[in-house]
Design a protein that fits this description.
By secondary structure, the chain is of the alpha+beta class. It contains 4 helices and 3 strands, in the order ββααβαα. The chain has one domain.
Length: 136
């Protein structure tokens, strides 16, 4: 298959998480999260900013980007990060079974109703930008 170097507007990652249903049984939630695509240098700077947030608290020396800048992580919460970085989703349905449109309000509602999905969505951004894992 030929490699086509077209710009892609989104990076996507499958999200799978188990939640407890109303009767206490585990229910698997699965869908595809789409994120605004960023250059590797930006993603690396975000990772360095997260490291620096922890290092500031510990009083340790801060990490610098290759260009010499000292990155900050500009988000107060994981939910703030997700709201800024998510561009859409696939295979999310409403209670009636029809596809649920992605909006900022819908995303906030899902994160409020399913707080256990916040960490997978946060990590999904970095997984989407690190490349797909190959199957054996």
């Amino acid at each position: 298959m030929a490699f086509v170097t077209a710009k892609r507007p989104v990076a996507a990652a499958p999200i799978k998480v188990f939640v407890n249903g109303a009767d206490g049984t585990q229910v698997e939630i699965g869908f595809v999260a789409q994120y605004h695509r960023h250059a590797k240098t930006h993603v690396d700077s975000l990772l360095n900013g997260m490291i620096n947030r922890r290092r500031k608290i510990a009083g340790d020396e801060l990490v610098k980007n290759p260009d010499g800048s000292t990155p900050d992580f500009p988000f107060e919460t994981d939910a703030d990060f997700i709201r800024a970085k998510m561009a859409g989703w696939l295979h999310v349905k409403n209670e009636g079974g029809s596809l649920r449109e992605f909006t900022d309000e819908a995303l906030v509602d899902v994160m409020e109703d399913f707080p256990e999905i916040v960490s997978p969505l946060f990590n999904g951004f970095f997984e989407a930008h690190s490349g797909a894992k190959q199957k054996n």
